[in-house]
């Protein structure tokens, strides 16, 4: 069991083993609340700030994390229908995500096989993609359909000139890909069971409300702020207020985690409030209380639940490195459980704007200063407290997966629920 983490990776149980784990989490939360106990990590952990600034370290993270483990690139409902596409960039790699007319999602290197130009930008729907440079055309699965002025151009092997395809899978209503076309793994085999734990959200049938992208410093500095609530009543005193608890319960599932506040959300009545329910929901009751809290999908994704106007929505935050060590993007995507009416959509868009303010104007400028001062070389170490077990877990798993060989990944990231 990882220090400071309760409920870590229990063994599979008969029946519905993922639900059984969620019930164990809920029981542990209720027991700790009743006893007013609070698990802490064994010791304070220290980290060399060069982890955030070193180009060599960053190159290893790109090659051994971001090009080897499955990454959440989108919610399935961002590309719900045939031809729907989205473009994004992860660690300098441009990606075109597109659903074909048979319903399958493809994750392609967004680069024309003539001379490299991006064949799509932004998001939208397209029957095919035409490169804006010389006009080569590509199918929704990346196949090369047409070479402009083919006779003039000369002989090409069209079958060999499809856009590069990354291994991709859809699980739990999310699109996951491994950004290595030659990866020996199916991303579905490396999810560590987190897809089973969050499947109860049923995200596959949700509705995309809004997305916005924020720019920040090193991806880990941007993401560290998702992994503890220690800073919440201090840094966010003007937005979330000074009365929030600065404590968090942590649960882990392989490298993935849950971070849960020890109190109900002030002033909000929500269906997922386990503390208000005071017991584990039975099989016939709504499962929302089993899913409460912030879900952390390794390496850089968080899912937070909200109930604006009483309607369930989640903020899917995807933090990825930029092309350089000191840059990242945080994409905040708001999803609604049911198609929102105008009032609900307005409430969700307002909440999305508020959360962009919290992260964009409070968290990320703070992280940017950390990046700045670490760059001076004058800071010897940073520390993660016994109350910041989630950060300790995250940074230890990063090192563990960087050190692991490719053929060790399936064992490290196997699902206990398969
Ligand atoms: S680079 Fe795409 S057609 Fe020339
Ligand atoms: Fe924050």
From TrEMBL:
Gene Ontology MF: a single term = 2 iron, 2 sulfur cluster binding
Q: Which residues form a coiled coil?
A: none
Q: Output the Gene3D superfamilies linked to this UniProt entry.
A: Naphthalene 1,2-dioxygenase Alpha Subunit, Chain A, domain 1, Rieske [2Fe-2S] iron-sulphur domain
Kindly indicate whether the keyword Ribosomal protein belongs to this entry.
no
What does the UniProt keyword field contain?
2Fe-2S, Iron, Iron-sulfur, Metal-binding, NAD, Oxidoreductase
Positions of the Rieske domain: 70-177
Cofactor(s) needed, names only, are: Fe cation
Q: Domain of life, per the record? A: Bacteria
Give the protein's recorded name. Answer: Rieske domain-containing protein
Organism whose genome encodes this protein: Novosphingobium sediminis
Taxonomy of origin reads:
Bacteria, Pseudomonadati, Pseudomonadota, Alphaproteobacteria, Sphingomonadales
């Amino acid at each position: 069991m990882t220090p400071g983490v309760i409920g870590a990776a229990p063994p599979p149980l008969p029946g519905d083993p993922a639900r059984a784990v969620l019930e164990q989490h809920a029981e542990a939360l209720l027991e700790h609340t009743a006893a007013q106990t609070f698990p802490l990590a064994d010791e304070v952990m220290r980290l060399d700030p060069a982890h955030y600034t070193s180009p060599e370290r960053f190159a290893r993270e790109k090659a051994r994390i971001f090009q080897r483990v499955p990454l959440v690139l989108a919610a399935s409902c961002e590309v719900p229908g045939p031809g729907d596409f989205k473009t994004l960039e992860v660690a300098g790699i441009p990606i075109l995500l597109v659903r074909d007319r048979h319903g399958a999602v493809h994750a392609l290197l967004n680069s024309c096989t003539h001379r490299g130009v991006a064949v799509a930008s932004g998001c939208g729907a397209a029957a095919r993609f035409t490169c804006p440079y010389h006009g080569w055309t590509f199918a929704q699965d990346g196949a090369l359909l047409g070479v402009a002025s083919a006779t003039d151009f000369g002989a090409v092997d069209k079958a060999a000139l499809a856009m590069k395809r990354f291994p991709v899978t859809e699980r739990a209503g999310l699109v996951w890909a491994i950004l290595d076309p030659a990866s020996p793994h199916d991303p579905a085999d490396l999810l560590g069971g987190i897809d089973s734990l969050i499947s109860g959200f049923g995200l596959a049938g949700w509705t995309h409300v809004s997305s916005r992208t924020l720019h920040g410093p090193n991806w880990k500095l941007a993401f560290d702020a998702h992994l503890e609530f220690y800073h919440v009543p201090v840094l966010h005193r003007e937005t979330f207020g000074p009365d929030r608890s600065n404590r968090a319960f942590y649960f882990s599932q392989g490298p993935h985690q849950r971070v849960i506040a020890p109190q109900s959300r002030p002033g909000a009545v929500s269906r997922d409030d386990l503390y208000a329910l005071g017991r584990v929901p039975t099989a016939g009751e709504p499962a929302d209380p089993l899913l409460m809290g912030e879900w952390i999908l390794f390496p850089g994704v968080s899912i937070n639940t909200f109930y604006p106007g009483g309607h369930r929505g989640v903020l899917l935050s995807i933090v990825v490195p930029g092309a350089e060590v000191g840059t990242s993007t945080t994409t905040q995507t708001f999803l609604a459980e049911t198609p929102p009416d105008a009032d609900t959509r307005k409430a969700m868009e307002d909440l999305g704007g508020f959360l962009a303010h919290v992260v964009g104007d409070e968290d990320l400028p703070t992280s940017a200063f950390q990046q700045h001062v670490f760059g001076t070389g004058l800071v010897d170490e940073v520390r993660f407290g016994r109350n910041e077990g989630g950060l300790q877990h995250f940074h230890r798993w990063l090192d563990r997966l960087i050190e692991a060989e490719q053929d060790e990944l399936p064992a490290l990231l196997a699902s206990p629920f398969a």
